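Hi R.,

Here's the chain you asked about this morning:
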Amino acid sequence: MRILLIHQFFLAKGEAGGSRFNDMCRVWAESGHHITVIADATHYQSGDDSHARDEHHQNISVIRIPTLSYRGHQKNARIKSYAQFAFRASRRVRKLKEKHDIVIASSPSLPVVVPAFVAKRKWNIPFIFEVRDLWPESAISTGVINASSLVAQSGFALEELAYEECDAVVALSPGIAKEISTRFPEKEIHFIPNGVHPDSLVRFNRENMREKLGWAKHEFVMLYVGAHGIANNLSLMIEAASILRDEPHFRFVSIGEGPQKKDWMAESKRRGLDNISWQDPIPKEETFKILGASNAGLAILQRNATFKKVYPNKIFDYMSMNVPTLCAIAGDAKALIQKYNAGIYVQPEHAQGLVDAARELNQSTESYYHLRDVVLTDFNRETLALEYLELINKLTKNATT
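And here is the predicted structure, written out as tokens:
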């Protein structure tokens, strides 16, 4: 079988953090299927346009589409990049010679559905729409675009068309699945969450790693790994670090890239905060080692009704290394933390609440060594990839009968 995946933010092989589809494509390829991925050559966090090139390995071909580079606060440039990717990816689909059996388009870049429409019509094949975030709702609620703007109205029209055109929807959280089901009750919806691949569960000496990182045994290190954008609201971490500045055994470490990072770095420097450090993205294996050496992971987003419906993958990453999460996200993320006893919930945008939770966790003797088993049981990307493949097989079989 040939699977066409259109995912603008597909990461390069071996890049820090990996990705859901990097792992899923590998599982599908090992099952004997051929996968063509059409992705952006511009990095979705940094805006760098030189991070990736076409790749060919293990029955997987990744085609990189050059688009506008965007950095900092260039909101319009990002939107133009999404549109440019959709246009150029559509042209690339038209040029593909091998017939594919199914096409998958994955948000949050909503225009990715346009080249999926092209593929669906070109080969008369099924189309799966994977929804990671509800767009354009997320962009409006975070202030990226105005609800009355032409971009927003076009987004709503494109979203509705995507649900009409697709043969099935894959939702990454219960809240997203419920929202789509309410709006489009006739649509076939499958909840296939994110997770962690077993290969990510690296083994290492925790004490040696902390010593290498310069972390003292008595220090309580809180680690954030991920995007540094408007929605991530890492100003909360800065406020908490400011409150804890006279308690030097508390340390914050942030790893990642994004348009707001320079501003947050400047703000922490302006306040003279020595208890917070900012690091560039690092290779996946090293990220997990640092994660496992930390005392807690941070999951932070804006106070926003839209974010009540998300499952941040960083929580699964933290769980995979038996690290508790300080979760400042309401809704599905809060429920996840509480269901699996995976950390402490903190009211979003409440710096003192984060400080209190850090102090509580620092004094706690509770063990979190059950979390890795939870991930391997309920959020194993290898298992989820096979579940996804069952859906693919079902749709392609129905299309040929």
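One quick note: The first helix runs from residue 20 to 30.

Cheers,
M.
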